[in-house]
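Researcher: Going back to the complex we discussed earlier. I've cleaned up the inputs and rechecked each line, so this should be the final set. Can you rerun the prediction on the complete assembly and write out the structure?
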Amino acid sequence: MTTTPTRPAPATAAAPPGGAAARVRKRLNTRTATVVSIIIAVLWTIPTFGLFISSFRPENDIKSTGWWTFFTDPQVTLENYQEVLFGRTASSGQLASYFINSLVITLPSVLFPLAFAALAAYALAWINFRGRDWIYICVFALQIVPLQMALVPLLSFFSEGVTVGGVTLLPAWGLTGEERFIQVWFAHTCFALPLGIFLLHNFVSQLPRDLMEAARVDGATHPKIFRTIVLPLITPALAAFGIFQFLWVWNDLLVALIFAGGGKQTAPLTVRLAELAGTRGNEWQRLTSGAFVSIVIPLIVFLSLQRYFVRGLLSGSVKG
Amino acid sequence: MNFDVAAEADKLTMLGYGLLAFVVVVGGLLLLLDIVPSWFARQREQRLAMAVAGVDPAAPPPARRKPREWLFGLFFLLPAVLLLLVGLVVPAIRTVLLSLMDGRSESWVGLDNYSWMFSQDEILSVLTNTLVWVLLVPLLATSVGLIYAVLVDRARLESLAKALVFMPTAISFVGAGIIWKFVYAYRGPEQEQIGLLNQLVVGFGGEPQQWLQNPPLNTLFLIVVMVWIQAGFAMVVLSAAIKAIPADVVEAARLDGVNSWQMFWRITMPSIRPALIVVVVTISIATLKLFDIVRTMTNGNYDTNVIATEMYNQAFRYGQTGQGSALAVFLFVLVIPIVIYQIRNLRKQREA
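Model: Rerun complete. Updated structure for the full complex:
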């Protein structure tokens, strides 16, 4: 291969050697490509779009005609949102309350793993001690352990404490009401750590060695280096993992179902929506607007911070 | 308006406690690590000063910095390792033990729970369903993602086109379940259809169907939802891999008169192989553990159950801890080969 990037050939080389027939075929190729990609894009957007349109249509319209009739007979109402967020009856959704639960669950469940994973990642990358590589490999392997493996014992750890051979080592936590948020935070933090440590370690370990050694020579201690040098430099990685964890926690159903319970006091949006979809599967005016209430925050986060999120995904991640 | 402000205030107080705990724990840890070493440092300086002053010239030289290195490591790792042990490692071991016990975890039953798993018709159908999911979802999602990534590469409006397909990644499985349940919605043939799919079927002169209630095809309609979510992930990772192919390789191939079909199979595919493996593995694992979609859309009825939903039912609804744990362990066994493969890759990487 004699080609180099600076070769001035492209202008002439771009013309297909086959002449007119090849040119036609090439244009046909790009046209098929365009058509196929548009079909995929439409297939991937239409379902969400239909849901979005429907959530603004009056109840009777949603239940009797398809959402596409909206374009010939546009009727817009905000009543569905009013009802699903603040409705009086128990069947109405009352999502405002669950929305707050989702927020209360999500914030600490993102912050704790971020901090602990960053500390651990730094230790595994820049502090020398024996067994470091083994700890790293274990953490790495833990990424893939399905969280189903931990659910039953972790729940009994909270509700019954730890007893070994009849001796109570740790009493039951006895959490009730709002206190059950603690269980959810705890569970999410544990489950997030393997991926978090792995992602941040990838990043922290690539910081320039000279920089670290210079700081050590200047007499900086590890906590000082961590705070003043490492943290500012790994902000993009922290953002990537933070967004990842945010979406994970906000969208999670299983962990919430088990550790938060199903009530209005602690359950997040996803639990309530799954419940509505099961018991009131034909109340589309509630389901459409409710689904949109739960989608809107992650969509905003996602669209505004997509760059960081993509970077997080590209670090090659498998979440347990 | 039914919005109890007092109840919400309690929750926000709880959030306040949570954030306070965060500040105290993390700040406290860093503070501790800052203060203790500097105290030691001062002690050492004093000893050094005394040694220099010649009080005791035979005294051993002050301890060097090195030996305390592992102490720092310990404290930096402590919260993470502790939580991993309490929240993952020990529970996982206990789950293995529980799977050898009866429903109430009182007596040992050996491998009964496992033989139960492979003898019940219902559970066998759960296992077959999971198999179908794991075979189809990675294949379909990766293919769609790859095709789309290749087609929109360097096209006009590329970033918009990618954002459209990537968007479902941000939507919860529950939300996606509702979105698609609406697409599959069914009205009797005499009524006007409200679901898009049945409208299309009727438009082409067919009979509307209860898509989610007729096995075995209903599993396929659930699989569509997962493919819809995962294709965006596949597309983004593969698209980045395609962009990372060196420009001169592509250029050289083009000068050699390679057409786009050959380009795809001879240049693109071999270059993105590692990314392709990562995508397939990631999607396979996510699919194995799939819970939310089935639970939201059919709740496992109509013969659509998968391992994760059945595990939840056994352990948390029927109180059959042993059988639930056995299902969880089986799930784990299915991913062990992947774990081993990944660790070998990791070690290779580290040696290189």
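Model: Worth noting: The first helix of chain B runs from residue 5 to 52.
Researcher: Good, that matches what I expected from the previous run.
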